[in-house]
Amino acid sequence: MSGSKSSSDPELKVEDVEKIDHVASPVPDAHYDPRFVKKTLRMIDLRLIPIMGLLYAIALVDRTNMGIARTAGMEKDLQLYIGERYSIASMIYFVPYVLFQIPGNIMLRVLGARWHLTICVAGWGAAQLGMGFVTNWGQLCVCRVLLGIFEAGFFPALVYIITTWYKRHEVQKRLAVFYIVSIVIGGFSPVLAYCMTLLAGRHGLNGWEWIFIIEGCITIGLGVLAFLFAADFPETSKFVTEAQRKMILDRIEADRKDSVPDPPTLKKVIAVLIDPISWSFGLMFLATTMPAYAVGFFITPILLSMGWSVSEALLLSAPPAGAAMISTFAFAWLADKTKKRAPWLAVQNLICITGLMITGYTNTSGTRYFGLFLVNMGASGCVPGVLAYQANNITSHSKRAITTAITIAMGGIGGIFATTVWRQKDFPRQALHLFPGALFTYPTSFRYIPGIWATMACQFMMLILLGVNTYVFTRRNRLRRENKCGPLENTEGFFYTI
Fold first, then answer.
1. Residue 369 neighbours by CB under 8 Å, 6+ apart
2. CA gyration radius, the chain
């Protein structure tokens, strides 16, 4: 096994970089039979993407099913309508989720991917199961904290693992596919949850309790699946042959020269923490997750506010996810095809802003519902887009681990922001019983206007950051081509992806 570039590989010249701009060197691929490369990548895709997508889909469902459970009777049973109890119970999950990101990615290297993912998945599955047996608001908050602790090390681990297997401009399509799996399952989870609520009354449990119990059991089962099938890093995974392993590592070495893992040190951690570019990626991910979480937590109340019944609101939550699935892959394909990230992210920000304006300021239920399609399409596509943008513009395993953790931690802060600015007091309530599990319906005048404007502000912030980063990266690339500065990211032949 070799993680370094072959000595027979020709050196990359600056003038060659000017022609290809974003890719460090295509040479190692030419050393291998294209059919061998294609077959190996397909095998890796099948081993990596479906299981990762399924696990993340369940994670997303488990962290955002509060809105569905609330509609199905939890609000009445746990008296979540008092003060800001629902918003606090939703938000408190994100506090440990943010705090444990960097420690989680460090433990990933210590434990290995299979054990790390198994502990995370089984742990939050147990917390989810426990939520089905809580009897008051305080117990619910404790379970939400445990959920945040175990999920903290999960998503950054997925992104980190996937980005170590592929070249920079092969990443976004893969991230998009695994995220699309989560969109599909997450989008249809309200329909499945509605079916679970029909168990209300069985064994003395309400419908919302059955949601948590069934989904918790499924998640624990997937923890076992993660142990059996989750892939490790390229240099340690056993499902590839030595020839395949060398080919994968050679491709990575040529593309960004970080096929060999470097251990994280305090000096490296500090260097990443004081780099403004690292935080710009994090703020972009915050801006991206803000509308995604807002839709996840509040789409059912929003649809109820349009005059639909509870069952209709649950069923109508699914179609916007279908549109987001198509949009996410289309933009990922365009980004990888053009080897550009920032312009396509900006387009999706504008789509999200348009959707928020339509949902907030039009007067018919149909147009407001159409606005939710645009919000979903704009926000969902930016999630893999920002992760790919971040992954494309850093080198070394240690920096990748820390920067990914920062980025996803800031996404958790986006969740805190979403659950606090979409406030309980922004929708008036009418105490009308629609069906046995629900206490409230909402008048059509409700629009969550402060939350909508806060979400739009995040999109404008992201547009500004994209503009600043594009200027900085373009300038650094130009200076390097003109030999007016040293190697970018301390990596010879590396150029930033715009």
1. 303, 306, 316
2. 23
The answer to whether the beta carbons of residues 173 and 92 sit under 8 Å apart is: no
Is residue 90, in this structure, part of any structural domain at all?
yes
**Distance between start and end Cα atoms, the chain:** 33
Say how far apart CA 322 and CA 233 lie, in whole Å. Answer: 32
| Distances, alpha carbon 161 to alpha carbons 48, 294, 305, 360, in Å | 9, 28, 41, 39
Domain that holds residue 98: 32-488
Token pair recorded at residue 287: 């801006």
Tokens of 75: 């609000």
Number of domains in the chain: 1
Which CATH number goes with the domain that contains 439? 1.20.1250.20
Crossing angle (nearest 10°) for helices 397-421 and 266-273: 50
What pLDDT is attached to residue 75? 86
Q: Is 198 exposed, middle or buried (0-12, 13-18, 19+ CB in 10 A)?
A: exposed
Sign of torsion, CA 223 285 493 21? Answer: positive
Per DSSP, 70 falls in state I
| Average pLDDT over the chain, rounded to an integer | 82
Q: How far apart are CA 357 and CA 464, in angstroms?
A: 19
For the residues of 172-233, what is the DSSP string, one character each?
HHHHHHHHHHHHHHHHHHHHHHHHHHTTTTGGG--HHHHHHHHHHHHHHHHHHHHHHH----
For the stretch 199-239, pLDDT in tens is 877 888 888 899 899 989 999 998 888 888 888 888 888 88
Enter the pTM of the model.
0.73
pLDDT at 466: 97
| Inside any domain, residue 51 | yes
User: Which tops the pLDDT comparison, 439 or 345?
Assistant: 345
Of 153, 124, 127, nearest to 140 (Cα)?
Answer: 127
How far is 83 from 325, CA to CA, in rounded Å?
A: 36
Domain for residue 223, yes or no?
A: yes
Put residue 84 in one of left, alpha, beta given phi > 0 → left and psi -120 to 50 → alpha: alpha
Contacts of 293 (CB under 8 A, 6+ apart): 64, 414, 415, 418, 419
Residue 141 inside a domain? The answer is yes
What is the distance between the alpha carbons of residues 498 and 480, in angstroms, rounded to a whole number?
15
3-state SS class at 443:
coil
Specify the 3-state DSSP secondary structure of 441.
strand
Query: pLDDT by residue (tens digit) across 460-481?
Result: 999 999 999 999 999 999 999 9
Helix ranges (DSSP H) in 233-364: 242-256, 266-273, 276-305, 310-316, 319-338, 342-361
pLDDT at 396 over 60: yes
CB count within 10 Å of CB 119 equals: 18
Token pair of 417, please? 């922001």
- How many residues are given for the chain? 498
pLDDT value of position 425 = 66
Q: Does residue 190 or residue 160 have the better pLDDT?
A: 160
